[in-house]
Design brief:
The protein has two helices and nine strands. By secondary structure, the protein is α+β, with helices and mostly antiparallel strands. A hairpin with a 2-residue loop joins strand 2 (about 55-65) and strand 3. The relative contact order is 0.10. Residues about 1-5 and about 35-40 have low confidence and may be disordered.
């Protein structure tokens, strides 16, 4: 039996999940933008868009009037247009090709968003180097309330908890407002 109020609750939960994902994305983007802004005068970005979603981004390094390949990012999404993967490649000018650099994946599970990161391991030809994982715990309104950071030494080892942090939304909102 579905009541109208339950349907509105589902819409409210989806909206809050979107807000939570946006919060996590803003955190990641703010860290990445700090790096990019320091060198933005020397870089040009080209985005490839399909169905209103950025599916690839190529960063070119500008040297005078010339542009050189620098980094390439490819993005994947699920059927709800949520980011599920980001793969980065660096340009190898000696071999004139893109070489794998790192991979991030995003999973959306019951009251959690799981973000995993691994760098490319040339010897193994796999993303199994410097593996890290963050698990964001969500409240009833789908806002992140805590996150756990994990590291893994090898593909066969277990995840090791590095830190556990509670998120204070009031402090975060006040910091953003300043």
């Amino acid at each position: 039996d579905r009541s109208p109020s339950r349907g509105l609750g589902d819409v409210y939960k989806r909206q809050n999940l979107f807000k939570a994902v946006a919060f996590v994305a803003m955190t990641i983007v703010s860290v990445m933008n700090t790096e990019v802004k320091a060198q933005e005068n020397n870089f040009i970005t080209n985005e490839e868009v399909k169905n209103d979603l950025v599916v690839a981004k190529t960063i070119f390094k500008q040297d005078g009037t010339y542009l050189y390949n620098h980094m390439r990012y490819e993005f994947t999404y699920d059927n709800e247009n949520r980011l599920t993967g980001k793969t980065a490649s660096k340009w190898d000018s000696l071999q004139s090709r893109w070489t794998p650099y790192f991979k991030m994946s995003y999973q959306y599970e019951n009251n959690e968003i799981i973000m995993s990161y691994a760098r490319w391991n040339k010897a193994h030809k796999a993303y199994d180097k410097d593996m890290k994982k963050s698990v964001y715990e969500m409240n009833e309104e789908n806002m992140p309330v805590a996150y756990k950071s994990y590291e893994k030494n090898s593909e066969k080892s277990n995840w090791t908890l590095v830190s556990y942090n509670r998120i204070d939304h009031t402090a975060n909102l006040l910091a953003m407002a300043e």
